[in-house]
Task: structure prediction
Amino acid sequence: MRRENSRVHFVVCLGTFFHIQSVGSISVALAAIQKEFDVSLAAVQWIGLMGAIMLSSLSLCAARAGDLIGRRKIFKIGLALYAAGSGLAAVSASFPQLLAFRCFMAVGLAMSAPLAAVIVASIHEHESRGRALGWLAASVALGRTTGPTIGGLILQLLGWRAVFLANCIFGVAISSTLFLILKGKEERRNVSFDFLGVVSLLIGFPSLLIALTLGARFGWDTSGIMPWLGLAAVGMSSFVWRELHARAPLMNLRYFRNIALLRAMLSLVLATLAFYPISIFGPLYLLNAIGISPISVGFAMAALPFCTTLISPLSGRLADRRNPRWVATLGLCVIVLGVFWYARLGEEATLVWIVFVLCILGAGIGLFLPANEKAAFSTVSSGDYGMLSAMLTAFGTGAGVLGTTAAVALAEVAKKSRIGGEATGFAYDQQFAFSLLLPLAALAVLLTILGKRQ
Result:
């Protein structure tokens, strides 16, 4: 049984690695996509954010589908859909078509990614769960390490379409492995499916993001923003009402009566709001402001997840032996330091210093995420792991999307008021955006420190 669990753990980490590696390779290709289709930064960000949007909107749906059909089955099907969508994206004839295929990929991502942590957590006892989650986080970070590097190499040699095609080929190979190993019957739960909750969330959250994007691009007094804000308000308020009254809600909002879980979720949201936009801004900053080659961008951006890969297993072991909240707090402090230094990067920054800053950020994220996840899982019973895993995914990715959208909006505001060349201007825009996001990460640290004194 232990050998079987190890095989399951390995292939789940392998599938998770593929997802994140693919996302990282696509982020390096954004500048090339923007240039070929002649679209704005506010438009091209949707290629990078589509996966996060679907994750935050559909994670809870995937978790419930896993309870009904089988978690491993949903994980396998989602990864196969993602690989197929990559192949379609490689032959896109227009930007709207590419965005549509990216949405198809994102549905597959939303089906499988939320179930990785719950599959891993369910096959390990409490005493070893932190270490197992640490290795899962390491596979995520390893995907982020290799994604930009491989993507940058393919982009420089063959172009951005080859990046999607390579993801398709790799995805088919990984999917075949999963279907061979993740076999057998699974425990299923006879629960109802909250369709109204899904529809409300799909209406509310994307509408909010569209409104923020339109405001950043055309101005906040544009009349077209109000309908989207109205849809967002209706959708999100309907979702909250539905989850409070549904017999089997997608998201049990009553969990938040638990102070420890509420603290873990708020820390995750605040920290992610601050550091997630770097995955979109980093490659553009290195290409536009620093002026290095795509392959160099890939290696530079790989520094952040590489450090996360190294630190995540250590964080998991520390969380098993010590109070995981202390480990998470230490990670948050390092994240604040990294965001502070990143917000001060200009067009004169050396590549060595930029890589060092990215390493600091990666180390902080590696310390924070596994320990925070271990603390969250310790607050619920094993039967609720699916919903909790989906909530962590939804809140984390949702915060990342909002943070990136807000960062782009702030950068657009700075762009309208600045004076200077394109390289100098982009660096200034980035400094303005991250200086305003930095207090959010600092607030996450304050939240955990105050919590420990209670």
